[in-house]
Design a protein that fits this description.
single chain; alpha/beta; D-Maltodextrin-Binding Protein, domain 2; 6-stranded mixed sheet; 5-stranded mixed sheet; DNA-binding; transcription cis-regulatory region binding; transcription
Length: about 260
Amino acid sequence: MNLKFLETFVWVARRQSFSRTAEKMFSTQAAISSPQKRLVRIGVMDTVIHTWLSPLMSTLMQTFPAVEIEITADAARNLCDQLQKGYLDIVFQTDLIRHDSVRNLELAHYPMHWIAASHSIYARPYASLVEMAGERIITFVKHSRAHQDVLNLLHAHGINAPRVSCVNSVSAMTRLIRDGFGIGALPAALVAEPLASGELIQLEPGSRLPQLDVVASWRAGVGLELVESIVRMSRQVVSQYAADVGPHRMVSVADLNSRLPLE
């Protein structure tokens, strides 16, 4: 393992500057900005791709131009499995991973909403969740955290056989909702523009959906310093994204001044 290489990443992440890192390490800016190449494998759920992945990638490419980033998009359960098997270095998904070799950091919450196309038959007042549950509901892939939360909420209101369509693609899910094929149960952050334009509306059946969490999980061990630097950057990116879109779209739980917890 190249410890000098890892030390460079840590100081660049902390100081956010090649020149200041070079001063700290008694090196040159050119040497700091062009270290040995390194591959980092990042797994992300679809919701992250459609919200703050691009700002994160931009930050990583600017700060670590020599690092190769490999992105894997998949459902949270599959990402967790791939992380524990060593196929991924970091995953951004919905659940804390309880494993001795894995560390976790909760990043943010997406408020979930009932959403329908304004031109559809679903764009009307509902007296209760029971009444609305008679319609078709469109949400995330089967067995995902969001899907289970929707089912649990419906079951808690005595709705034991709801019509729930599970979709494994955010693009496909939002397309179906916009075309009026059902009522969506999803974060408003995924449809911010059509909500702002009036193409989509939020429904208020009297029962709110649980929030959708975002957790960074990574394996402990060799190379941890580099991976933790990227986790710290993700925390900063998420905090800025949440500030930009507002609490109705995303709420950051990161404290940028706190020490990175190792759970």
